[in-house]
Amino acid sequence: xxxxxxxxxxxxxxxxxxxxxxxxxxxxxxxxxxxxxxxxxxxxxxxxxxxxxxxxxxxxxxxxxxxxxxxxxxxxxxxxxxxxxxxxxxxxxxxxxxxxxxxxxxxxxxxxxxxxxxxxxxxxxxxxxxxxxxxxxxxxxxxxxxxxxxxxxxxxxxxxxxxxxxxxxxxxxxxxxxxxxxxxxxxxxxxxxxxxxxxxxxxxxxxxxxxxxxxxxxxxxxxxxxxxxxxxxxxxxxxxxxxxxxxxxxxxxxxxxxxxxxxxxxxxxxxxxxxxxxxxxxxxxxxxxxxxxxxxxxxxxxxxxxxxxxxxxxxxxxxxxxxxxxxxxxxxxxxxxxxxxxxxxxxxxxxxxxxxxxxxxxx
Length: 363
Prior knowledge:
Blueprint: E1 4-5, E2 12-13, E3 17-20, E4 27-29, H1 30-35, E5 48-51, H2 67-80, H3 85-92, H4 97-109, H5 112-117, H6 152-158, E6 160-161, E7 166-167, H7 190-219, H8 222-230, H9 242-250, H10 260-288, H11 295-362
Antiparallel strand pairs: 1-2, 3-4, 3-5, 6-7
């Protein structure tokens, strides 16, 4: 490549040159162009072209690497990966693998570019101390649980690939048929494009549903539960009260938004909340009765239980007395009714006798 000379200072142009677009064969170096020189018909307001052949060094004049070679080196690192120096040197063309490696380390890692772009110290991991592990706000509850090991026979039976956390036949396995033959051509009008985009939206929705179902399977360990139930080794389920079971039954639709650990923790928290409310009511009753020390609570509970027992005894005694009185009253009423019946029967017999006597006399 022939060397170019500056029309104004007559020096060799080693790097970028500016070529006037209006004057014929008029070249300037960067120094003269920056001063705004005007020679003959050339004016500083003329349009110009930037001619860059990549022959100038980027970092310093001591290195033999030109700007074009630096660009080839960066392209090689991006294409072949860091550490593949032989392919990088072959991509540059006129450099060896050692020269390529030393130059990259000297200017892009240990040099100013590396000091600015690469961190000197790795930031330490920041631990969250705002909540204890296993608490209601613990981050460990929102993490996905590790899958249990499955034998090769179990994986083959279910069509489950454990390392990929995937199934051989997915949910809605024919969803890809919506977009498998879909393509947008130049002759398509707006209506055709809208119909095809609607098909893509339908496909995305079906993929989201598939991902949601896979997340539920993974979070609730349904694969492991399937084999545990088939082998009759399912763990014993916790039996709660009827109220707790009814509440969990009502909250079942929201289980798709919770993991198994979160759902169990939710049930435990509800039971704990119930116990706290009961305890708060007991303490409020103690405060209402003038008890301000915890040591006095036992005496208060003991005296309260004693009073309740005495009250129950009094109720039992009064109930027995009432039963006795009712029994006596019933007995008195029975005797009284029996006497009344006898008296009325006697009167009836006397009347009959009187009537018979009167009839006999009249005859």
